[in-house]
Amino acid sequence: MRDIIKMTCGKCGRANYATTKNKRTMTEKLEMKKFCPACRGHHPHKEGKISKG
Fold first, then answer.
1. Can you give the residue range of the structural domain that contains 27?
2. Which residues lie across from 33 on neighbouring strands?
3. HEC states along 4-30?
4. Apex 45 CA angle, 33 and 26, nearest 5
């Protein structure tokens, strides 16, 4: 039930982190404030899908 997701920066749009999420317990999109090395600051990162192929 755990899916691999990527965390994309809300400011520059780069995918900086990859993590897993349980779809059954967390139905909404994940968003957390993380450090973006491209922007060199802490910005909100949103969930995005990782393509399977």
1. 2-49
2. 44
3. EEEEEECCCCCEEEEEEEECCCCCCCC
4. 90
CB 9 within 8 A of CB 37: no
Number of domains in the chain: 1
- Per-residue confidence at 37, pLDDT binned at 50, 70, 90? very high
CATH number for the domain that contains residue 10? 2.20.28.120
Give me the residue label for tokens 């780069």.
14
Residue 45 scores a pLDDT above 70: yes
Residue whose entry in the numeric block shows the structure tokens 């990527």: 6
12-33: pLDDT as tens digits: 999 999 999 998 999 999 999 9
